[in-house]
Specification:
eight-stranded mixed beta sheet; 32% helix; binds NADP nicotinamide-adenine-dinucleotide phosphate; Rossmann fold
């Protein structure tokens, strides 16, 4: 069975993702910044590797892994410099490692305006530019990719449904972290999700069908 390295596992999407993966008996290795964060994940049966995206990544973190999920981010409170170091440079280093290890799918958690930063929220343009170039780097790396671009994240419970069509109203461009986590699991399970880029919002398409062959969304 494939083993997946989850980078940013201790985040709000990451924890829900690892719980879902563990529930499906998927093999998981989590990348954490501190050993103090490990007990939640070892209790779920995950392997733990300690690494910081601001530093060189240990080659061993990716060894024997088949897939990678990148759901790390510096967050909104740390400033633009950390966004460059984590969301952009950290992501690019992870892609390089994935290439070195012949990873067969790299799932990137990006953001809704990464495709067109000039038309996103001006206050976080630097963030969207970082996401844009991280996505671009992955897309041109030769590593099979799945790029997910969620709308604004909420802490609502999972609906089990999404849309990949951008709603007209900005206020409707949202999705729960729980639904994003469920989408990642589906993408890892469907080869049809490889080399695809999708925005993610609340919607009425069952997540269980959203990444199937012949999908119409
Ligand atoms: N907020 C939104 O509305 C929104 C919308 C679209 C996309 N996104 C993206 O969705 C992703 C996940 O969101 P989330 O809510 O789960 O974020 P989160 O809770 O802030 O989790 C981010 C994770 O990244 C880790 N991290 C930060 N700096 C790191 C570093 N230098 N090295 C290694 N790990 C590092 C954090 O580690 P610690 O736990 O140790 O702090 C944390 O576990 C992010 O990429 C975010 O940009 C967010």
């Amino acid at each position: 069975m494939d083993k997946t390295l989850v980078i940013g596992a201790n985040g709000q999407i990451g924890k829900q993702l690892v719980q879902l993966m563990s529930g499906q008996s998927m093999h998981v290795r989590v990348m954490l910044r501190s050993q103090n964060q490990a007990s939640f994940f070892t209790a779920l049966g995950a392997e733990v590797v300690i690494a910081d995206l601001e530093h060189p990544l240990p080659v061993t973190a990716f060894a024997e892994c088949d897939k990678v999920v990148f759901t790390a981010g510096s967050g909104g409170k740390t400033g633009a410099a950390k966004t460059i170091l984590v969301d952009l440079w950290g992501a690019c280093k992870a892609v390089d490692m994935a290439k070195h290890h012949d990873i067969k799918q790299f799932v990137m958690v990006s953001a809704q305006n990464a495709g067109d930063p000039d038309n996103g929220n001006p206050a976080i343009k630097h963030y969207n530019v970082c996401k844009h170039f991280a996505d671009d780097y992955l897309q041109h790396s030769g590593v099979p990719y799945t790029i997910l671009r969620p709308g604004r994240l909420t802490d609502e419970t999972a609906t089990g449904h999404i849309s990949t069509s951008r709603p007209d109203k900005k206020d409707d461009r949202i999705i729960s972290r729980a639904d994003v986590a469920a989408c990642i699991v589906q993408c890892l399970d469907h080869s049809e999700a490889i080399n695809q880029i999708d925005e993610l919002y609340y919607g009425d398409m069952p997540i269980s069908e959203a990444f199937n062959k012949g999908r119409s969304i």
